[in-house]
Amino acid sequence: MKILVSNDDGYLAPGIMALAEALAPIADITVVAPDSNRSGSSNSLTLDRPLSVFRAANGFYFVNGTPSDCVHVALTGVVPERPDLVVSGINQGQNMGDDTLYSGTVAAATEGYLFGIPSIAFSQVEKGWKELDAAARIAREIVLRRFDALQKPYLLNVNIPNLPYEKLGKIVPTRLGKRHESEAVIRAQDPHGREIFWIGPAGAARDAGEGTDFHATAAGNISITPLQIDLTHVAQLDALAKACHD
Fold first, then answer.
1. 134: which of 19, 87, 107, 245 lies 20 to 30 Å off by Cα?
2. CA–CA separation, 119 vs 173, rounded Å?
């Protein structure tokens, strides 16, 4: 099995190192990741400047661009053979509910999916890398499942509680929950006295009921959510057609 590994925390992040180490015994892996932290970059591609690809001493490739850039460049110009799987993570912090729209971790996996390759995004629920070895072990187990029953390509979003391996619950198929709207921006001043704004924290969970990713991870289980990219609001089509013809 050939696996392309990326992330949004950067090629030096503990999460991608743990993930690569966990997958190396079971696959031929290539790591192509951003040169620095690109969290929250979503599915953006860099179109206003050329990208550069470098190789670190440990063999990882790193790119001065976004997670989507990394996977795009890897699949079209760096990796000689098409991988069987694209894996992203392990992210420092959860990507649940509405987070998936902003997440660079999910975006890297999404780029693989858009190229027709099965893809999985992995995140830990809490920041700080606590119990990272356990998360990496779970990631390897999930990759080994192969999910042959799923239509390919598939796009899976996995969130793993920061618990020791022995205390982790089961792997639970979930739907995305929903958050309240984000908190207000944080106002500050730069050294020159100019007003600046920091994006505020994400909103608390609004829909965290049974069946959601929030509910599963709160119970100590591993949440795995199948994602799709078609944003069409199908239920609105008939009403829209009527409105267009009135």
1. 107
2. 16
Q: E strands along the chain, which residues?
A: 2-6, 28-34, 53-55, 61-63, 85-91, 119-124, 155-160, 171-173, 178-179, 186-189, 195-198, 205-207, 222-226
Is pLDDT larger for residue 150 or for residue 197? 150
Instruction: Name residues whose C-beta falls within 8 Å of residue 173's C-beta, 6 or more positions apart in sequence.
Output: 224, 225, 226
With a cut of 80, say whether residue 118 has pLDDT above it.
Answer: yes
Per DSSP, helices labelled H in the chain are: 14-23, 67-73, 99-102, 104-114, 132-145, 213-218, 237-245
> 113 near 72, Cβ under 8 Å?
no
Q: Give me 40's structure tokens.
A: 């929250």
The sheet with strand 28-34 has its strands ordered as 53-55, 61-63, 28-34, 2-6, 85-91, 119-124, 155-160, 222-226, 171-173
Ramachandran bin of 61, using left for φ above 0, alpha for ψ from -120 to 50, beta for the remaining angles: beta
Residue environment code for 213-240, b if the CB has 16+ CB neighbours within 10 A, otherwise e: bbbbbeeebbbbbebeeeeeeeeeeeee
pTM check: above 0.85 = yes
Q: Write down the residue that tokens 């391996």 correspond to.
A: 165
If pLDDT is split at 50, 70 and 90, which confidence band does 206 have? Answer: low
